[in-house]
Amino acid sequence: MSRSRFRLLVLFGLPALLSGCLAVAAAGTGSSIGYVATEDRSLQQNADDIVTCTQAIQLWAQFNTQLNDDLNCHTYDGRMLVTGNVPTEAWRDEAIKRAWQAKNVKEVYDEISVGPGAGFETNTHDAVTTQKLKAQLLTDPDVRSNNYIVTTENRVVYIIGSAQTEAEKQRVIDRARALSGVRRVITYIRIDANAPAATAGSASGSSAPPEGAAANAPPPAAPPASPPAPVSSAPLPPGPNDTPPSAPTPRGDISVTPLQ
Q: In the chain, where are the structural domains located?
């Protein structure tokens, strides 16, 4: 079965197989307009990423329509992940060369396999795995799920994106490796703590009167408020674990040992 036909099957037929899993994902999709504010990418970066993948797909089709049919493109902040299966090494080299020609591309991650593609059963399992992981990340309060792109090929989970901390990155990886039937987890995740931090809320409720004070005595006068400190528009300095802006994104590769 060609990849394009399988995509249509996933789009229209798979929801019936994933009613429980996709119900959560659908709920998240419905609220994605409000949730996008938690994504580190700007709207312009999102638009640029769409253009980048669109151009790569067009360049592949110009070489051979089968190449376009056999590959998948996922881009996060100009960093492109290419997955799929091609018949020869020459086709893979051509695909990567053309991916680099796309506008705004910063990095290209070659995860193309040479050889025949997976069968229908594996493709279905891959689609289910991807949706399960997306749903788990969406409902995890310790993960900014909009900062990650997830896809699965031949029981290998690929994740690209940005984490605010090493702990968040590890949490995403642990969720992926715990899914049934996953053979490996390959990641391209940068650590970037330079994101809007949550503001500390003021304590609510009344405090107890100091010892020795009358219970019905008026509260002491509040000290005069100090003028608020000026807010700097300059970005925060990188943290000790941040991926340097000029450094390539590290590739993580974890083999998953099946549970006995």
A: 3-12+42-195+240-255
- Reported confidence tier of residue 25, pLDDT bands at 50, 70, 90: very low
Q: The tokens of 114 are what?
A: 């040479």
Strand partners, 156: 153, 184
User: What band does 3 get if pLDDT is binned at 50, 70 and 90?
Assistant: low
84: left (phi over 0), alpha (psi -120 to 50) or beta: left
